Amino acid sequence: MSLEGTTALISDRYLITAEVDSGATVTAGNVVYISAAGYIPKVKATDGVRKDVIGVALTSGTAGKKITVICRGLVRVTVSGAVSAGQRITSWSNGAVAGIAAMTAPASYVQATVQTELDKTEQWIGRALTSGTDTVIYALLSCLP
After folding, report:
1. Looking at the predicted structure, is the pLDDT value of residue 145 above 70?
2. Confidence category of residue 8, pLDDT binned at 50, 70, 90
3. Torsion over CA of 18, 40, 17 and 52, rounded to 10 degrees?
4. What are phi and psi of 105, to 5 degrees?
């Protein structure tokens, strides 16, 4: 007996419906963030490192159109710069992803330095499964808290 796919908690992916926000265009494969809350959230492609990423668009759309977004699961995304398999990834500009450095313990307590390290935990959206530089990679996405 396989439990795969029987509930959202143990499913291999978690999908939602979102609406592309006004003035925006989302292309399948773009990392998207919540630009306006709601039962059906409005989304835009990421414009840099963000803490409010909801997932990766599986379908394309223009302002007002409904799209499907994957919040957890295996995805293909464009990486900006270089990333190694196993490295944590974060959102980047133009709906892409980038590698994010591992957390480090500051040598002394300076609030800004500690906060920078803590922010990394909210910026992680998954792990790269393949390596690449400025190309499409496979990643395991986990945008749920």
Report:
1. no
2. very low
3. 50
4. -85, 120
For 14-142, CATH number out of 1.10.10, 2.60.40, 1.10.3470, 2.40.300 equals: 2.40.300
Nearest to 16 by CA among 53, 65, 57: 57
Residue 96 identity (one-letter amino acid): A
Kindly report, residue by residue over 56-107, the tens digit of the pLDDT.
999 999 999 999 999 999 999 999 999 999 999 999 999 999 998 777 776 7
Largest CA distance in the chain: 53
3-class DSSP string for the chain: CCCCCCCCCCCCCEEEEEEECCCCEECCCCEEEEEECCCCCEEEECCCCCCCEEEEECCCEECCCEEEEEEEEEEEEEECCEECCCCEEEECHHHCEEECCCCCCCCCCCHHHHHHHHHHHHHEEEEECCCEECCEEEEEEECCC
Conformational region of residue 86, where left means phi above 0, alpha means psi within -120 to 50, and beta covers everything else: left
Domain ranges of the chain: 14-142
